[in-house]
């Protein structure tokens, strides 16, 4: 009987602990933001085109126009080695430099777009930290 009481107390304590952990973790999950539904939803956070830095909006417009671009690397295949973006076949994604004022090199900011036709991408993503994180660009 003592064993049964101890087992019941353990289960109750465990349930309370797990319940408290869930309640405490919930605000952190909600704080990340829920992606807005899009035609091609990646599940990543989103950023409005109007919220991109000025240089990002310029790069995005050039992508849709087919150039000109600021770097020879612009428009080249992006390998998605970090596996943050949705999995696609090699060559699906292309990367473009978002100029960083005062930087002597390409800097860390990029737009990566996916699709078969570069000027009509299925989806584009912005990173300000050289591929460590991405936000899907929404218009």
UniProtKB/TrEMBL annotation:
<keyword id="KW-0540">Nuclease</keyword>
<protein>
    <submittedName>
        <fullName>Ribonuclease domain-containing protein</fullName>
    </submittedName>
</protein>
<feature type="signal peptide">
    <location>
        <begin position="1"/>
        <end position="25"/>
    </location>
</feature>
<keyword id="KW-0378">Hydrolase</keyword>
<keyword id="KW-0732">Signal</keyword>
<dbReference type="InterPro" id="IPR016191">
    <property type="entry name" value="Ribonuclease/ribotoxin"/>
</dbReference>
<dbReference type="InterPro" id="IPR000026">
    <property type="entry name" value="N1-like"/>
</dbReference>
<dbReference type="Pfam" id="PF00545">
    <property type="entry name" value="Ribonuclease"/>
</dbReference>
